[in-house]
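Exercise 7. Predict the joint structure of the components listed below.
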Amino acid sequence: MVHTPVFLLLLARRGRGGIGMRIYGPYTRKDGRQHIILYENGKRKTISYPKYLLEQKLGRSLLPNETCDHIDGDFTNNCLDNLQVLSRGDNAAKAMALKPAEQGYFVCPECHKSFYKAMRDVRSNQIKQKKAGPFCSKKCSGKYGQRQNKTFRGGKPNPRYTGDMPE
Ligand SMILES: [Zn+2]
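Solution:
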């Protein structure tokens, strides 16, 4: 059933285009996203419903580098309070943060166990470690570090050095 909220009809009456503009929708796609169809001076345009709502709220069109962001991450929640303007860059950064971390498959250089680890942690880990790693655990990372220090630390025997590499 097609249902046009009173809110939209009011917007249409005083919105851009004014008389001669007709709005149909919102229609919901299979993926849950909504759009409206706008007839303006005989031209038919399909517009993202949340983007349209946000533009009406702002009283202006979005700029080319602006996007309509769903604050809670739910793109089916087109409540006005859930919509905000984000630059394209900020929106991409937010998408990255919300995305499940990309997992990498590694073999620990210390104990040779295989394990998964988030790639974003690995990069920072490897910067800290200079080149070694990633390791399966802090313990392995520590052991490896000790061996790198060999038996001496600051010219004195390293008491934390526990022995040679296993196997
Ligand atoms: Zn390990």
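Discussion. Residues 103-155 form one domain.
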